[in-house]
Amino acid sequence: MRITQQVRHLSRFSAPRRVVVSGLGVVSPIGTGTKLVWDNLLKGCCGIVSLKESEYLNLPCRIAGLIPVKKDSNLLKALSKSNLKSMAPATCLALVATAEALLDANWVPETDTDKEITGVALGMGMINLKDVCDTNDALKIGYNKVSPFFVPRILPNMAAGQISIKYGFRGPNHAVSTACATGAHSIGDAYRFIKHGDADVMVCGGAESCISPLAIAGFCRLRALSTSFNDEPEKASRPFDKRRDGFVMGEGAAVLVLEEYEHALRRNAKIYAEILGYGLSGDAAHITAPREDGSGALLSMRRALQDANIKKYEVTYVNAHATSTPIGDSVESKAIKNLFGEHSSKISVSSTKGAHGHLLGAAGNLEAVFTILACYKGIIPPTLNLEDPVDDLHYVAKVPEKWEAARRVALKNSFGFGGTNATLCIAQI
């Protein structure tokens, strides 16, 4: 047994290890590249636009958060016909975000030892329904028209697989698919892999690219999407606002490099923040609606605090899941108030979905990036379109807010259909 393996084996029986963030990569409706996206977020930019193709004209919702693709960009090259022949669009987006995150972390291992201690935990919420429809049409023409890459394209774990294959990472290879909690669960699971000695470095996050007429129609039939702002798409996603009427679908990918603290120090890596804790819960209530008393969200947040071993009063920011749905936002607000009690008046709350929409399986990870940058830079990103709040929580609305605290500690919530909940506790290092 190698010495490094012996050390890792022994670490399973010692105190849990600290986990930090050393790299970030983003592809989103408000840009590609972490710095650009963060700057656009703070400026109040919005990436929600009209869907003008004829297939959308008769649908109740005709807007979405689409990724802007510039000519001669790395993103355009990643979405080439040759790549899309064998990979789903979401996988291509994940590879772009991963390349940025690894470059940012200065971690592209070359030795077998370093590759064996590096893993991947990255998932998606939905497969590309257009791919399924197009392949079904091809089958009607003939068996030989079905692509041999059809199954690999629609498997939710293929983004993780492609990342592992491209870079030779041989640590844990893990894919989560828990609807809109996917990205946060991926980060939380990666955190635990490092904490308990299964890896020293984890590439983690989520990717989503499933905007299509069928997907929009399906969510419309659930009455989940915004339908009142088709002529003003930039105003449609309005978390915690009384005029909210549903979420806006978005697409993109965000990838984080998590690293064991001592490992990061030894190689003098840049450290953005620390992952302190991870909480999970189930609503056990309804296939799409959260538990009305907010107890599922409350349990998730409480368990994250317990895992982090911190007190409630240490938290001064909550990056909310708040998707702009009438029920969901109110339930999350209630959960925050019930958990923190009197301290809730001292907590800043925001949801960035007004800027980029709801990225489904890539929502929790994108918003975790923003929470990490808030901890790192001391600036809380705003909630766009918040004009008439649902209650008296301290919402950061329209413009950023300076974050004053002895140590910046935040919770990041993500909740998904089926009643699946995840919360990350993230702090200034």
UniProtKB/TrEMBL annotation:
Catalysed reaction, written as an equation: butanoyl-[ACP] + malonyl-[ACP] + H(+) = 3-oxohexanoyl-[ACP] + holo-[ACP] + CO2; dodecanoyl-[ACP] + malonyl-[ACP] + H(+) = 3-oxotetradecanoyl-[ACP] + holo-[ACP] + CO2; hexanoyl-[ACP] + malonyl-[ACP] + H(+) = 3-oxooctanoyl-[ACP] + holo-[ACP] + CO2; octanoyl-[ACP] + malonyl-[ACP] + H(+) = 3-oxodecanoyl-[ACP] + holo-[ACP] + CO2
Stored PROSITE patterns: KS3_1, KS3_2
InterPro entries recorded: 3-oxoacyl-ACP_synth-2 (IPR017568), Beta-ketoacyl_synthase (IPR000794), Ketoacyl_synth_AS (IPR018201), Ketoacyl_synth_C (IPR014031), Ketoacyl_synth_N (IPR014030), PKS_Beta-ketoAc_synthase_dom (IPR020841)
Domain of life of the source: Eukaryota
Any one GO CC term of the record: mitochondrion
GO molecular function: 3-oxoacyl-[acyl-carrier-protein] synthase activity
Known pathway: Lipid metabolism; fatty acid biosynthesis
Name of this chain's protein: 3-oxoacyl-[acyl-carrier-protein] synthase
Protein species of origin: Parnassius apollo
